[in-house]
## 1
Amino acid sequence: MTDSPDRPLRIALVDDQPLVRAGFAMVIDSQDDMEVVAQASDGAAAVAELRARTVDVVLMDVRMPRMDGIEATAEVLAQAPEGRAPRIIVLTTFDLDEYVVSAIRAGASGFLLKDAQPEDLLGAIRTVHRGDAVIAPSATRRLLERVVATPEPEQQDISLLDPLTEREREVLTLIGRGFSNREIGAELFVAEATVKTHVGRVLAKLGARDRVQAVIIAFETGLVAPGAS
């Protein structure tokens, strides 16, 4: 999604707790490059609101009345005009682990803990708008480890990795371990631009929308095991 740099990012907040929305809105509206343009108290209201309004990024709670964040994520993305789908960040706590991967598979670009620091919230919004997925900081990776169960060896579909070269498998392994492009470059002694090329090829060959889906594949194929660092 490309927009004029003169226009602030349009943010939608979806959460059934008014105080949570108010807190996020205060943080977001304090920034020159973003503004809250829509709010909804549940998934059904969000789907209706976003049907008539174009936004850049949605902060979506998971557990809400009428329609939860997982179903709402899928509905919002399905109804968006081609090329204008918003990026969606799922808001969660460690108590709601079981919902996160389902939300990612529904199309969310990442997830953020509700008690994240304001700078992490703002950074996540800018990150997903650039087209990257939010899988850092390390707390997010630990959350992935808890919600992505590594199948037993006989149940792992490692054929998904067949299209990857040896170097691309190395890159996917490091993505699964939570490394940034810069950290991958340092680990493999290659330029960051080269890493970006490898990451793009990995995503394309896996049919993964973004890094979060790549991480899930890395876990589910056994390429990365929980606790690996």
Note: The chain has a mean pLDDT of 84.
## 2
Amino acid sequence: MTKLVTDSIKMVDLESQYLKIKVEIDRAIQNVIDTTSFIKGSDVRQFETELEEYLGRGVSVIGCANGTDALQIALMALDLQPGDEVITTNFSFIATVETIELLKLKPVLVDIEPDTFNIDVEALLKVLSPRTKAIIPVHLFGQCANMESIKAVAESKQIKVIEDTAQALGASYTLDDGTRLSAGTIGQIGTTSFFPSKNLGAFGDGGALLTRDPDLANRIREITNHGSNVKYYHERLGVNSRLDTLQAAILRVKLRYLDQYHQARNFAASYYDKALKENKRLIIPQRTNKSTHIFHQYTLKLIDMDREQFRSYLSSKGIPSMVYYPVPMHLQKAFSYLGYQHGDFPVTEKICNQVVSIPMHTELDENQLRYITDVINDYTN
């Protein structure tokens, strides 16, 4: 029994997820092949429309080639100038900071909250300057950053907000007045990724931008298409970044199941919580009362443990794990020119040495969850 359980445990089980909807996915793919509408086929606009309906009234969705392109296009759409400062978190995937630098803007990093891993608003306040033109909060691991406070700061200083929603599409955030908004629709622009392992994942690369501003939506759509609305007439400099029709067709099918996927992830997270919450050598993920959590990752903090020994033990028992992220942005060689030093971001540096993510996906069953948590508790207790 144990061997059968361990043989099937994966960090992300895309094969099993696919097999459950194989007939629908295969039909969608075949339809694109039959129509040969590989670029800008009808599935692209249909997917955008269906995602708009999912996210709420007044939201425009513009597909693009990937999540990194989405971040770059968002920055381009705000007409920022070289040297303008963009504040973002020090604890994320490199794409968030990479796109800032590629456009010759100046990334300004800030520390994170020790419990949610999201950007620390108090730290953000300390680095505001007259050159601050945008803030990019990352909704890490599936839970929204403190958008109420970030939005208030931004509005008071006429600063734009780009939400990096690559890990939290489908989460929602409740404002103090009770208004509930989808992640990615609170700031001026939201960006997301449809990388296969994301909660809404394609079978290849894909991304999208989200906005409630019709003028921004038109500008973004132009930028994704070489700065053009009418073929061979170009209003601005743009890029070639399209959501592939095959990927859009796949995403249309998977969008119908997205809420079910979130329920499955939350079932797994709740099981982990209950089984691990009394473990004195672990800290389970913290939820805020402002945001739902869709658990793109389930990330533990280890207390007084050798992380690599712990991961090796899990691996020996057939349980995969990952570290998101082992090196903070300010200590990456690529960003050494920014001049940050060890100790400048104490929370991020500590978290990078503590965190470990355990299997989290839509196909985890109770036998697998029981086995994973039993193994972890056997090692740590």
Note: The radius of gyration is 21 Å.
